[in-house]
Amino acid sequence: MLYLGYKLFPRRDSMLKKIALVAAVAASASFATYTFFPVKDAGKGQVELGAQYGWTEHTSNMEIIAGAEYTVIQNLAISLTNIGYQLWNDPDDCGEKGHEDCPDNDGIKAMTVGARYQFMPILIAALDVNLPLTSEDVTGKYDPFGLYGAIQFTKEFVPNLWFGSEAGISYKFEDEHKTEGLGLTVQAEVDYTIANIGLTPWIGAALNMRLSDVEEDYPGAKAEYGSGDKAILVWLGAGYDINPMFTVKANFIMKFADEKESMGGDWTGVNAKLAINF
Q1: How many domains does the chain contain in total?
Q2: What SS3 state is found at 5?
Q3: Considering the entire predicted model, what is its pTM?
Q4: 96 contact partners, CB below 8 Å, separation of at least 6
Q5: Scanning 151, 193, 220, 259, which has the fewest C-beta atoms within 10 Å of its C-beta?
């Protein structure tokens, strides 16, 4: 899972990094893999493109989001997630009289390459590799290489009622002066399709927890913090099938963090996407 923190920067730089990292955590902390549900048949796939708007008590952010998954052979799918472009991520009062100018922090966001293998009808093994390709204007030079491995459980309990879940461990490698270590993610979603109108509402939740401290080593200053800190995400959404090829989706997301410094703080967001099935 992606966890980002901030600490030990000069005052202005710290504020800007904090703004960028809060949004990064919020946007990516919940959806580590492309989906919790069964791998599509060989040769089938989906591409998503949309936009996401989020806010905290004093900031707001906007980004373009995209992702895709394709089943290369039966039971094995590959994916690209966390692709996007940040349009802004600013304090609400920036640019106003008596306040600092809005930061220049638009730019490309990271890419995650993933794979899922359905080795049983109800069990899927998943692996995500986070590539450090995000623009420095977005991350403030903090963009570590990361791995996430998970086991998914998915089942249709009654016709059209699907349960999907995931438990996984992440590791973020050292990036210059910071090492984040291990994180735990447990998340689940319930979807119900109203077949006669092509509408699928869903509800989901995730628990993210640090299993080890964030370690920072800057000239003249060292810090270790965050082990055991948690964040909870809850989302509500729905998808509508325009036809077999096109689906529109929307989500409302809330994130609650019990330690602002290591887990990025509380965040609320909405997104809308167009999915193209092929």
Answers
A1: 1
A2: coil
A3: 0.86
A4: none
A5: 220
State the residue range of the domain holding 253: 11-277
Say which residues have a Cβ less than 8 Å from residue 234's Cβ, sequence separation at least 6: 203, 204, 205, 253, 254, 256
Q: What pLDDT digit, counting tens, does each position of 142-177 carry?
A: 778 899 999 999 999 999 999 999 999 999 887 777
pLDDT tens-digit map of 182-237? 999 999 999 999 999 999 999 999 999 999 998 888 888 888 888 999 999 999 99
- Cβ-based burial of 192 (10 A; exposed 0-12, middle 13-18, buried ≥19): middle
The CA-CA-CA angle for residues 94, 96, 101, to 5°, reads 45
Do residues 153 and 184 make contact, with C-beta atoms less than 8 angstroms apart? no
Q: Is 99 part of any domain?
A: yes
Full DSSP string of 107-124: EEEPEEEEEEEEEETTEE
